[in-house]
Write a structure and sequence with these properties.
GO terms for molecular function: 7S RNA binding; ribosome binding. The chain is built from 33 helices and no strands. The chain is mostly helical.
Length: 677
C-alpha cells in the first residue's frame, strides 16, 4: 500500500510537470515526464494520448503514428482518430488519412477541418468546396479568415486546373492571401491584366502587414513576396514579355526560398522560355525540379508538365535514350495523353525515322479515336516534310470533322494546286459546299438560305475554276451567287465573261442586266487623284510665263532651235580611204578572226626538269623560232589578212616597225637563255 501511495504521489507530480510544460510549449520536457508516467502504468490512455500529442508538436509524426499503431487496443479510433489522420496527412499518406477520417464514429470540427485539407490534396475540389462552405456556415471562432482563404484557394484551383468559371463568393479581399488566390482564379480565366492588378494589391497588403512587425527584416518580406512575384512573372510570360519574366524568375531564385514547390515551378517556366536554346542553363534549372518533397507540393498537372519538359529537354540535348525513357513512362501513366506520343514521334524524326514516326502516330490514332484529329494533322505535317504532299492530302481528307472547315479547304486546295491536281482541288470545294447545303437544309427544314461561310466557299470555288480555265464548271457557282444577290455587279460580270466563251447568246441576254454607263459613272476629281499620294503619274502644274518663255509661247509657229551635235573623235591613224572593220565593235574574243593568244614556249619550259640540267638545243633554238612562219595569222600582226579585205583595219593598225622590234627583243631574250640555269 505504501508503494502504491508513493507511486500515485509521483504520478501526480509528473502530471503537474506535464501540465506546466504543455502550457509553456515545452513539449520535449513534457514528453520525458509522460514517459516516466508510462513506466508506472504502460496502458494509461491519457498518458499515451499526451505522448502522441508531444511527438506531433515536436514534428515526430512517424514515431507518433508508431505509438498509435502499437497500442490499438487502448487507443481506439474514437479516442485518437484526429491525431492518427493528422500524422498520416503530414507523412503524405493522403489516402490513408481519408480512410481514417471517414471511419471515425464522430465527425468533430477538427476532423472536418482536416477533411477539407485532405480533399484539396486529393484534388477533389467540388467536395472540398462543399466541406469548407459547411465549416464557414457552422463555425464561429478566430479561424474564420483562414477558412475563407482556403475556400478561395479551392476556387482558384478549380479555375486553373479544371477550367471552371468560379462563382463570386463575396469574400472581402482584406488579406494578401485572399488577393493572391483571386489573382490565380483570374489567370485561370485568362484575365491577365486584372490578375496583375490583384497581385500588385496583394504585394502592397503583404508589405503593410509584415512591416508592422518590428522583428521582420526586409529579407523576410522579400521571401514572403517570392510567390507573388513568381505569379507576376508567369503573367508576363503568358503576355509574351519573356525577357521581363526571365529577369524576375532569376531574382526569385537568387533569394533561395525554402519552398521547393515554388523553385520547381520557376525552374520549369525558365526551361519553357529557353526551349531549344541555352540548354546548359536549362540543365542546371532542371535539378531544382528534382528536389526532395516536390511531388507533395505540386498538383498532378504541374508535375506532369515538368516531366513533359524534361523529356523535351532530353530531346533538345540529343539524349535520345533518356527522351524515350521519359516519354514511355509518361505514356504508361497517362495512356490517353497525346503529348508523350508526339514527343516520341519528334525524337524519331530527329533520327530520320519518319516512316516509323508516322506508324507510331497511326497506331495511337487507332487506339484513341478521340485524339485522332490532332494525330492526323501531325501525320500530315510529317508527310509534307518528306515531300509526300499527295499522301498528306489523303490524311487530311480522312478527318471528317474538319473537311468542311474553310481553313482545311484552303489548305487542301493550295496543296493540290501545288501538285497541279486541279480536279482534286475542285472536288474538295464541291464536298465542302455539299456539306453546308445538307447542314442548312436540316437546320432550316427545307428553306435554302446561304450562310456567309457557304457563300464564301461558292465564290472561292468559282474564282478557282475561272483561274484554271474551267469556265463551264464555274457557271453554276456564279449563277448560284447571282441568284442570292442579283445586285452583285461583280458576280454578273464574271458570269457574262464565262458565258461569252460557252454561250455567247446567253452572255448577251445577261449583259442587259448590267447597269447603264450613266448610272455607273463616278464623280472623280482627276486633279485630286493625280496629286494624291499613291498616284504614279503627276501632271506638272503650269507655272507663270515670264520673259523669253512668254515670247516663245506667243510664237507658236516658230521652229525650236536644234542643238548642234558634236562630231565624234576619230582614231589618230584613221584613213578615210580604208573601209572600217565591221566587227570593230565586238570584243576581241568574239571576232571571227580571233585565234587566241600565242603563249611563248620558253616561258612555259624554263625551270622544268631537275635542278642544273640543260634542255635540248632544239627546244631553245632561237633561229628556228624566228625564221619559222606562224602557224596561224594573229590579229594585228603584219602577216595577218582580214577575212573581208586585204587592208589592215584602222583600229588594228600599229606603228611601223613595232612587230620587228618585238621579234628582236624575243630573239635577244632567247639567245641569252641558251646557257640554261
Amino acid at each position: 500500500k505504501m508503494a502504491a501511495a508513493a507511486g500515485a504521489a509521483a504520478a501526480a507530480g509528473l502530471w503537474s510537470e506535464v501540465n506546466r510544460c504543455g502550457q509553456n510549449g515545452d513539449f520535449a520536457r513534457a514528453l520525458k515526464s509522460v514517459n516516466k508516467i508510462l513506466q508506472i502504468n504502460k496502458d494509461d490512455v491519457t498518458a499515451l494520448q499526451c505522448k502522441v500529442v508531444c511527438l506531433i508538436q515536436n514534428g515526430n509524426f512517424k514515431e507518433a503514428l508508431g505509438v498509435i499503431n502499437t497500442h490499438t487496443k487502448v487507443l481506439t479510433s474514437d479516442v485518437i482518430a484526429f491525431e492518427k489522420a493528422y500524422c498520416e496527412y503530414r507523412l503524405n499518406r493522403i489516402e490513408s488519412a481519408l480512410k481514417t477520417i471517414q471511419s471515425a464514429s464522430q465527425q468533430t470540427d477538427k476532423l472536418k477541418e482536416l477533411y477539407g485539407q485532405v480533399l484539396y490534396r486529393l484534388e477533389r475540389y467540388d467536395d472540398c468546396l462543399a466541406a469548407y462552405r459547411d465549416l464557414i456556415r457552422n463555425s464561429q471562432d478566430e479561424y474564420e479568415e483562414e477558412r475563407k482563404t482556403n475556400l478561395s484557394a479551392v476556387v482558384a484551383a478549380q479555375s486553373t486546373w479544371e477550367k471552371v468559371v468560379p462563382e463570386d463568393l463575396g469574400l472581402r479581399e482584406a488579406t494578401y492571401e485572399l488577393c493572391y488566390n483571386t489573382a490565380c482564379a483570374l489567370i485561370g480565366q485568362g484575365k491577365l491584366n486584372e490578375a496583375m492588378k490583384k497581385l500588385q494589391k496583394a504585394e502592397e497588403l503583404c508589405r503593410q502587414s509584415l512591416s508592422e512587425d518590428s522583428d521582420v527584416t526586409e529579407e523576410d518580406i522579400e521571401a514572403e513576396l517570392a510567390i507573388i512575384h513568381g505569379q507576376m512573372a508567369y503573367i508576363m510570360q503568358l503576355q509574351g514579355r519573356t525577357e521581363d519574366a526571365l529577369q524576375l524568375y532569376n531574382q526569385i531564385i537568387k533569394l533561395k526560398p525554402t519552398d521547393v514547390g515554388l523553385l520547381a515551378v520557376i525552374a520549369n517556366n525558365i526551361i519553357t522560355i529557353n526551349k531549344d536554346q541555352n540548354v546548359f542553363d536549362s540543365k542546371k534549372k532542371v535539378k531544382l525540379t528534382n528536389a526532395e518533397g516536390v511531388e507533395h507540393k505540386l498538383s498532378k498537372k504541374q508535375l506532369q508538365a515538368i516531366e513533359f519538359n524534361k523529356a523535351l529537354l532530353a530531346m533538345y540535348t540529343n539524349q535520345a535514350d533518356q527522351c524515350r525513357k521519359l516519354s514511355a513512362s509518361l505514356q504508361s501513366q497517362s495512356p490517353e495523353h497525346l503529348l508523350p506520343v508526339l514527343i516520341q514521334a519528334a525524337q524519331l524524326c530527329r533520327e530520320k525515322q519518319h516512316a516509323k514516326a508516322v506508324g507510331l502516330l497511326q497506331d495511337f490514332a487507332d487506339q484513341h479515336p478521340a485524339n485522332a484529329v490532332e494525330i492526323k494533322l501531325t501525320m500530315a505535317q510529317l508527310k509534307i516534310a518528306q515531300g509526300s504532299v499527295t499522301k498528306a492530302c489523303m490524311i487530311l481528307r480522312s478527318i471528317e470533322e474538319l473537311q468542311h472547315k474553310p481553313g482545311m479547304v484552303s489548305a487542301l486546295v493550295t496543296m493540290y494546286s501545288h501538285e497541279e491536281d486541279i480536279d482534286s482541288a475542285i472536288e474538295v470545294f464541291t464536298q465542302a459546299i455539299q456539306w453546308y447545303q445538307q447542314y442548312q437544309a436540316s437546320q432550316t427544314k427545307g428553306a435554302n438560305p446561304k450562310s456567309p461561310v457557304h457563300l464564301s466557299l461558292i465564290r472561292e470555288a468559282a474564282n478557282f475554276k475561272l483561274k484554271h480555265g474551267r469556265k463551264k464548271e464555274a457557271i453554276s457557282d456564279l449563277e448560284e451567287l447571282w441568284k442570292q444577290n442579283p445586285k452583285d455587279v461583280h458576280t454578273l460580270a464574271q458570269l457574262i465573261s464565262a458565258y461569252s466563251l460557252v454561250d455567247p447568246e446567253k452572255a448577251k441576254v445577261l449583259s442587259k442586266h448590267l447597269p447603264s454607263s450613266d448610272t455607273m459613272s463616278l464623280k472623280v476629281d482627276v486633279d485630286a487623284l493625280e496629286n494624291s499620294h499613291g498616284a504614279t503619274y503627276v501632271r506638272k502644274k503650269a507655272g507663270k510665263l515670264t520673259g523669253d518663255n512668254q515670247q516663245k509661247e506667243q510664237g507658236q509657229g516658230e521652229v525650236k532651235k536644234k542643238k548642234k551635235k558634236k562630231k565624234g573623235k576619230l582614231p589618230k591613224n584613221y584613213d578615210p580611204k580604208v573601209t572600217p572593220d565591221p566587227e570593230r565593235w565586238l570584243p576581241m574574243r568574239e571576232r571571227s578572226y580571233y585565234r587566241g593568244r600565242k603563249k611563248g614556249k620558253k616561258k612555259d619550259q624554263v625551270g622544268k626538269g631537275t635542278q642544273g640540267s640543260t634542255t635540248t638545243g632544239s627546244e631553245l633554238d632561237a633561229s628556228r623560232t624566228a625564221s619559222s612562219p606562224p602557224t596561224s595569222p594573229r590579229p594585228g600582226s603584219g602577216a595577218a589578212v582580214s577575212a573581208t579585205s586585204n587592208v589592215i583595219p584602222p583600229r588594228h593598225q600599229k606603228p611601223a616597225g613595232a612587230p620587228a622590234t618585238k621579234k628582236k627583243q624575243q630573239q635577244k631574250k632567247k639567245k641569252g637563255a641558251k646557257g640554261g640555269w
